[in-house]
Amino acid sequence: MTSPPVLQVALDVPLATLFDYLAPTEGAVEPGDRVVVPFGRRERVGVVIGTAATSELPAARLKPISRVLHDAPALSPEWLELVKFLSSYYQRPLGETVIASLPPRLRSVKPLPKKALAPPSDAPLALRCRLAAGHALTPAQQAAATRIAGAGRFAATLLHGVTGSGKTEVYLHAIAGLVARERQALVLVPEISLTPQLEARFRAAFPDARIAVLHSALEDVPRTAGWIAAARGDADIVLGTRLAVLAPMPRLGLVVVDEEHDPSFKQQDGLRYSGRDAAVMKAKLADCPVVLGTATPSLETWHNAQQGRYEVLSLPERAAPGASLPVVRMLDVRTTRVEHGLSRELVAAIGERLSRREQSLVFINRRGYAPVLACEACGWIAGCARCSARLVLHAQRGATAGRLRCHHCGADQPVPRECPTCGNVDLKPMGRGTQRVEETLAATFPGARILRIDRDTARRREDLSRTLEEVRAGEGDILVGTQLLAKGHDFPNLTLVGVLNADAALLATDYRSGERLFATLMQVAGRAGRRERPGEVLVQTSFPQHPLYGALARHDFGAFATAQLAERRAAGFPPFVSEAVLRAEARALEHAVAFLREARELVEAPEEVTLYDPVPNVITRRAGYERAQLVAQSPSRGALQSYLRRWSEALFARPARAVRWHLDVDPLGTE
Q1: Fold for domain 115-315?
Q2: What SS3 class is residue 631?
Q3: Ordered DSSP codes for 275-293
Q4: What CATH number labels 327-368+433-569?
Q5: CATH 3.30.70 region(s) of the chain?
Q6: What is the pLDDT of residues 397-436, one digit of tens each?
Q7: How far is the C-alpha of 163 from the C-alpha of 182, rounded, in Å?
Q8: Beta strands 578-586 and 625-634: pairing type?
Q9: pLDDT tens digits, residue range 114-145?
């Protein structure tokens, strides 16, 4: 009598290994099946990764699996290949990667609720995915949509379109061409806040299609239902944030990554993967085209396009009849009069829009009332006790005093009645945030309807959606907001954008700060003049001759990217080198640094890999932990990955200690 095969099962435990279990004597178990297995004194959900004839463990120690879970589709070979790639490339245990890629309800031994198991639609796919009338294209849009839909096999395409050029319409037509051939489409957006409006557009364009939405703000049941619909192949179109890329899609025919440059596509805890890069790999495994759409490509994507790895499709003009790109002007705050943070020219321009019943947007990427609360008598500044950062002053409506909040750890406390150092009661807010700008505008334009949109006013997704609909309906005269308003929004009546405090990013130490600033400014500038009324953008700056602002005024992303890439090449920064960062945090900084020094010696680095000395993070203390980091770079991605695999194995093999650490591959800059 032959013994049952050994199943290699991935479990979510902090070990870089798979666990062996015996297969049941009856019923086949295949790779991709979810199973319940005994583990210690409890049962866990695992995923079968493979089978083996024998195990390194004695047969007497092997336990059989408890049962196979058939309440959701088995995970496909393509899905397993994707998570194996993510585990290997981003240096996380396979078990952790596999289980974390499932919706929370599918990680539980409890049976799935019936609401998550909606019956599949029986309408023919080709009929469900006919594009509704009213979606005419410009010649440039039509050429792009035809090219994408005709790709058939894997091809990576950069859809580089100016703001307002109608990239979403290209997506819709390309999807209609592919999905009607019995294929599925995946569309990723960077922010949860963009999902409702995109969902509304897709449901209007494909009224008969089954559309699944996936993002972290969904409750467990609808999120699980959407995942199962995608995995079963019943969802025609899947919309979501980066986690949607982890949904199995057996008939995948097109992947779209909208606003591909956005930093939100990079996961910042656990498995620190790039949703954009995972989408490219997902398309490659499915042998289908992938489209990266943006007005401001990331320099990595632009470099890939310049090297011929990605095809470039351009949309150089706005799609709406009569619409043109806004005029961008710099206001030199060194020579112009500025009161309460607003220049005379900006105030006058807002007044003109009010008289014409047009909308204005005042953009400042800093929420709260003021970034600093200080005592002028002794120089005391309100700082966070848990972080090496200042507390931000937030005003509170209906209260006699505001609150001090840390935007890094979430600490919150009342404003002190007096300086804790010298007793001075005249504490001063320094600088400006969205709340203070809103207050200034309300005093300057007492009859105007002012809407502030930031993380404080949009804590719930439904609140943000409602406010954005009000703006589109023309119910606000002046908008005050952060980068929440910088991307993906179409406000037909908005003709003026004023930008405050943009210079701070020019002085930042992060080599990516210029790229981020240009993308943010170009995106927020793109909110103005999206219809026949001309738009204007006024940027208050002390450096009006800076090359970045010159490229912005010309709407010349190519010139900006060329200059930035030349600087990156000379300095030895990505994309001309591959990079990883080992970060450590402990209660004492010397412990974190000592850990990194020891880690540096665990595995000898090859000649192609450079390891730098450990240094404290810019924000050294966060939430009570002191943080440091060690950067690894190499001109060869293969050499770095080979080293990281050996290094990661050595790090995971170390005994646990009072230091928390993680490897971040392709980081978005050092912290």
Answers
A1: Rossmann fold (3.40.50)
A2: strand
A3: HHHHHHHHHHHHT--EEEE
A4: 3.40.50.300
A5: 578-665
A6: 544 458 999 999 999 999 999 999 999 999 999 989 999 9
A7: 32
A8: antiparallel
A9: 766 666 655 555 556 678 767 789 999 999 99
